[in-house]
Amino acid sequence: MKNLTIPALCIAVMMIIPTSCKPMTKTPADLTKESIIPKPVSITTTGDYFTLNKKTVIFVSGEADEMINMAKYLADKLSPATGFAVKVNKPSANPRSGTIHLTLADLDKKFGEEGYKLTITKQMIALAASKPAGIFRGIQTIRQIVSKDTISNKPGIFKISTGTITDYPGYSYRGMMLDVSRHFFSVDDVKQVIDYLAFYKMNILHLHLSDDQGWRIEIKSWPNLANHGGSTEVGGGEGGFYTQEQYAYIVKYAASRYITIVPEIDMPGHTNAALASYPELNCNGKATELYTGTNVGFSSLCTKNEITYKFLDDVIKEISALTPGPYFHIGGDESHATRVEDYIPFINRVQEIVASHGKQVLGWDEIALSVLKPNSVAQCWASESNAQKAVSQGAKILMSPARKAYIDMQYDSLTPLGLHWAAYIEVDNGYNWDPATFIPGVGKENIIGIEAPMWSETIIKLDDIEYMMFPRLPGYAEIGWTSASMRSWDEYKVRLAKHEKYFKAMEINFYRSPRVPWDK
Ligand code: TNX
User: Fold this and answer.
1) pTM (predicted TM-score)
2) Annotated catalytic residue: which of 233, 334, 426, 457?
3) Model pLDDT for residues 319-349, shown as the tens digit of each residue
4) What angle do CA 48, 51, 52 make, to 5 degrees?
5) Ligand 1 centroid vs 179 CA: distance in angstroms?
């Protein structure tokens, strides 16, 4: 990892022979030609340049630490690209030219929490938003504009096209899921994923914290879950788990990128790691063996025993206390070892437990078989009729259709990692769909957003995560942010190709899809 860097050699050569590393400055200046992903709501150009150089200073509109931290973050992200440190200054009533301004302002309601307005003139770059999250999203746009392509033929001088960008998201939930159960990933790996999501303005990381193969979070009242249930993974490796302190740190790190963590404890199926850790969770009172295979649908909590609900209450209480976000994900998928007449009252009761700890239920689409609370959300992965059932109960939908959005699916039959039970998902296939017209009877008003799940049966290390995420993830980010009427694969693929420079600068191990017109 993973900062945007101009090859040092190129800078060195440029200082000697200024024309040898051909700058790709666009002439004439045209802000609308920038390859920003997700595509902003509107861009206008005024045909001039702002000059970014060593003297550029970032000002913030208030003293709030939050804004100053963001200015430092921007400076930090720009300096590897520019090769110099952009300074951060306290507010100034009369800022001089050549500055970047981050300002909280009362923007129109349509900008919401995450919208922003970026105005670039010859004298300054002004970023305004109603809320800090909007400033953070706008900073990502600045990062995508100030790249090595904007360097002028004078070293250390960047020419940024002038104009205005007005931008806000179409959906409020734009996420990715990481399965840390089938294979465990370190805190550093998770931080890296969070940074990738941030670059594309995504705002949710859903962590699949338990499954048959591993329990990945410390629960103080049931310590064996992590100690025993977390001690292996698919293939028999050593597994692992997050201590509560580590989980809290991930939550905090994500929050610094205005990303919310959604914790998932899968139930009543996908629970072998718990069943192996505590005999009393099994109907026959006997602990199961740890499991390191990849079959699904064989395990179930004992839905008729009271201890099961005491266990769930403790687990949901401890995790909820560490989770500021609104959702607690209860899984609920593929409970083939639970009879449906047991499944329905189980989910009904667990919804009450989640509510009693102040959280809202998210669950895979099967939870629509139960009586959904009005604020429960069904995550549609497989069944259209479950999604329709959820909507008919007044619940909302999170769209993750496996054949479009599962980033553990292979690109094609030659992809060395991943599965293909739902589909092969080439980059165009993953981009070309509209969540609001995908399921009959489920429209935009029923949908909170989209999520791309990364199941990890075959995904072992960060490099693998990157290979499956990129270059598909920017497409999911765009589906969640940009209205369907403004999206087309033929236009998008050209912008996506331009992001190769970011993938390379961030040292991302990405799939060079033949469907994307990369530079030769
Ligand atoms: C189905 S999707 C599952 C997971 C697997 C995944 C592999 C869902 C709710 N359940 O248990 O990991 O397929 O693609």
Assistant:
1) 0.94
2) 334
3) 999 999 999 999 999 999 999 999 999 999 9
4) 145
5) 10
